[in-house]
Specification:
homodimer, mainly alpha, two-stranded antiparallel sheet, 6 helices, 2 strands, DNA-binding
Chain lengths: 141, 141
DNA sequence: CTTAAAGTCTCTAGTGACTAGAGGTTCAAG
DNA sequence: CTTGAACCTCTAGTCACTAGAGACTTTAAG
């Protein structure tokens, strides 16, 4: 294990593109690392841990402000974990709402596509349904 | 029924914000209407129909390039309906993929939140799990 | 030690589908 | 004729990056 990582090495270790790393630094999510004499970034294992935290939270759909809060709570006193829980709960609700919306979309799309029968009658409901909201279930947003 | 609608009237009839209507015109999805002497837009029922088509397709998650294609197919010869079907099928696949992804997220979030028990032991897994990918199922993107 | 290639630097602009606001003009009702 | 709501254009901001230009640094080979 080397003492320091270049941004390219960190990129591979954390599975995160190079410009994205710089962008997290810019936004204050990843601490600015030391630089070489030639001004290149050199990262430590702590940076790697932090970056993985960010990437994992992103993969779960948390947005950057939420991740910043979660980071601040990390390493704080016990009561703050309830705040982390609240953030996660709220996000879970969002995710469930999105799933419900997408399922409504899915149902309508299926109905629309199944209504088509251009093989035998050149009848296609897609364009009709899109043109007239009354023709569909009408339960989407 | 009036002969022409102002942009504000169209906005209410199609449940679409005024700047959004102008924006669709800018992008070529909604034809430019005639103007009054004072340069204000005046729309017909055809515009209303088109705008409702767009809004309905957007509500179903189609993106603007797809909507433009669907519009072009509308009123074309019969074979083009198969193309409309293809676009809808493709979109349906996207929607189903998103649902699957969100469900994976949901499962991991639930596991994370349920692991918490700060009431009795001040133990919270959220920050730990986010920090160490090995602690979760690890099946997300 | 030299050189070439790969990596890195900063900065700007673009993505999608809008939304918000500034500053000015026109319309419709009373 | 006045007033105020609605309308006009144009610019900039949203989110989380991604792409590219043009210049500089590092590293490995010879």
């Amino acid at each position: 294990m080397s003492e320091f990582y270049s941004i390219g090495q960190l990129s591979k270790l954390a599975d995160c593109k190079v410009p994205t790393i710089r962008w997290y630094e810019d936004k204050g999510l990843l601490p600015a690392p030391t630089r070489t004499e030639g001004n290149q970034r050199r990262y430590t294992d702590r940076h790697l841990t932090t970056l993985r935290f960010i990437r994992h939270a992103r993969a779960l759909g948390f947005d950057l402000p939420a991740i910043e809060k979660l980071q601040q709570l990390n390493g704080c006193c016990y009561g703050d974990h309830m705040e982390a829980d609240r953030i996660a709960q709220e996000h879970l609700d969002d995710v469930r709402n999105k799933i419900a919306q997408l399922k409504a979309m899915e149902a309508e799309l299926v109905a629309m596509i199944e209504g088509c029968d251009y093989e035998h009658s050149y009848k296609c409901r897609i364009l009709d349904v899109l043109g007239d909201h009354e023709l569909c279930g009408g339960e989407h947003k």
